[in-house]
Amino acid sequence: MWLPCGCTSKYVASSFARRILASHLHVSGRSRCNVAAFMPEAAGFEGVSGRAALRELSVSNSESFWAAVARHRLSWSIPFHTVQDCDLSRGKIKWFEGGKLNVSVNCLDRHVHTCPERVALIWERDERGSEMKYTYRELLEMTCRVGNLLRRHGVKRGDCVTIYMPTCPLAVASMLACARIGAAHNVVFAGFSADALAERIRDAQSSTVITVNQGVRGGKVIELKKTVDTAVESCPTVKQVFVAMRTDNPVTMTARDIAMEEVREQKMLKEDVVCEPAVMNSEDVLFLLYTSGSTGKPKGLVHTQAGYLLYAALTHRYVFSYHDGDVFGCVADIGWITGHSYVVYGPLANGATTVLFESTPIYPDPGRYWDMVERLKINQFYGAPTAIRLLLKYGDQWVNKYDRSTLKTLGSVGEPINTEAWEWYHRVVGDGRCPVVDTWWQTETGGICIAPRPSDPDAEIVPGMAMRPFFGIKPVLIDTEVSGELLTSNNTSGALCMAQPWPGMARTIHNNHQRFIETYFQPYPGYFFTGDGAYRSEEGYYQITGRLDDVINVSGHRIGTAEIEDVVCPAVAESAVIGYTHSIKGQGVYAFVVLKKGIDVKEADLSRQLNGMVSEKIAKYASPDFIQFAQRLPKTRSGKIMRRVLRKVVESDLEGLGDLSTLDDPAAVQEIIQGHEKLLSKNRP
């Protein structure tokens, strides 16, 4: 039986929390009422007089805080007995041990019991004006049918199902069906190439893939089934591929393919729409999601059941000030962590109405987002700075054409938003009345960690800054130059790390826990290293300054430089890829290429060939914007390519080149500078 939330933690008792807090804080009953109205769980914390005090409690007494929130927010079949068992020095992270639950029950069944006809999903299809709505009852039935289908074909608890689909209701039902029967899912962005898909299928050891015949995006048909066919040729573990129909166009079916139309053809009998949920442990795997790393091999980050769901739900509710009846519009693809946390799991756990956006911001015209806001009456809009910068260039008229009076909160995600885009977003899109929450987080964090909200309603928001840590998050800055010294003062910059664990964080890298430790916990022992740099202002607000490793953020998509460099071309002897500031995408890709001796080929032809290979092996967004051919690259005497020097050249910061005496041949730098100037002059209008 699925029970309301409950816990018998050996670490936490509400009386303990009250004793601790009452000893140093005292507030009126009215203050307690105010903070309890904001967050009901806070009613059990005497002495918490406001949101700032609640945040302080969430850090100083994190176990008390998270235990209360978990009891209240999630439905458990068996209560947890241990709040957390974490050791950041060893990369050990466990939350809510002993607890058992099912994520799909938390996202669907409990809402069907109270409000079955509430709209769960609004599918904003590529074809404008053809949106489709699905209630919680309908989504539960679809999820159960998919779950039964998977079970009938041998998918069992502990298996990993790869999903390669556009953003659509069946993709959401497939994710939830995996969660329902105890299988993990591995959603792969439907813009990835066959090679990139195959690599992720092999690493996840999937025997089952779910896809569609074709995708539709921006008015173009995308051959997803053909991509899967090519990918699985090199994936011996794949035994079956479920194929749904997004368009009416038939595709070639093989012996391993199963038409998902079987889901629709099942008889509408009671047992067909009932799928018994598996009882899962809090720390069982919920999903894998691959993200680019600096080594070139994507990392399969592992998120587990209870902690991830709780954190996604809590951040969705409080960062965006979501309330029952609101329509939440996150325009991310489900293939990214933003789609997982703020299109699917966070909103559905909260019983929200969430939008699935299948199209692009400029199809069929640059008013697409704002037409959608008017038609669907969206209250919270969450998008990428790349799209905001793009739409800004089309002018205000495409925004002002549509009624946006329903908007209450605007959000940005994926990369830092520049001040000009922030101010346009706030002034034009939000009419100067909607707070803009510039959110910082990662695939690794599971949910938003730093954002301007939640805070007091009249608290300032500084353009272009993520600003304030979320409940339970304790960011610190560490000096990157002086052997990991903790920076305690304000008005300073350093490596952004987290000083204590939180429930939503990733647990490991699939099949490679040592890499997990080396990447996130060894650089600064005792801390979680985010890979980003940050600035802390005089007021204590945080501003993200960019990656500290060799990862480029293109339009919010992280791609490792080594991943691009690893694309093999017979004519290339060596290459170096760096990111540079791009006015639309945030960062662009700039490649330096050295050809093998004796190669006689036109640079323009080879550039086209290299771009085509990167598109085929990784994805179109990873293709270099510029390819500069060089006789040699600047290297240290030990043979290491000096990417720092290349980056300074591309940024035209020649004064910042620094000491070049350690280079094997400093003259190589001058050749690179001259080649860069020549390439720029060739590309000027």
UniProtKB/TrEMBL annotation:
EC number(s) for this protein? 6.2.1.1
One cellular component term from this protein's GO annotations in UniProt: mitochondrion
Into which EC class is this enzyme placed? ligase
Q: What reactions does this protein catalyze?
A: acetate + ATP + CoA = acetyl-CoA + AMP + diphosphate; propanoate + ATP + CoA = propanoyl-CoA + AMP + diphosphate
Lyase among the record's keywords?
no
Acetyl-coenzyme A synthetase N-terminal domain boundaries: 53-107
- GO terms for biological process, alphabetical: acetyl-CoA biosynthetic process from acetate; lipid metabolic process
Domain (AMP-dependent synthetase/ligase) spans 109-502
Q: Which controlled-vocabulary keywords does the entry list?
A: ATP-binding, Ligase, Lipid metabolism, Nucleotide-binding
GO terms for MF: acetate-CoA ligase activity; AMP binding; ATP binding; propionate-CoA ligase activity
> What are the residue boundaries of the AMP-binding enzyme C-terminal domain, all occurrences included?
569-640
InterPro entries in alphabetical order: Ac_CoA_lig, ACAS_N, AMP-bd_C, AMP-bd_C_sf, AMP-binding_CS, AMP-dep_synth/lig_dom, ANL_N_sf
Q: Is the Nucleotide-binding keyword given for this protein? A: yes
| Pfam families, sorted | ACAS_N, AMP-binding, AMP-binding_C
Name the protein family: Belongs to the ATP-dependent AMP-binding enzyme family.
UniProt cross-references to NCBIfam families, sorted A to Z: Ac_CoA_lig_AcsA, PRK00174.1
User: What is the official name of this protein in its record?
Assistant: Acetyl-coenzyme A synthetase
**Species:** Oreochromis niloticus (Nile tilapia)
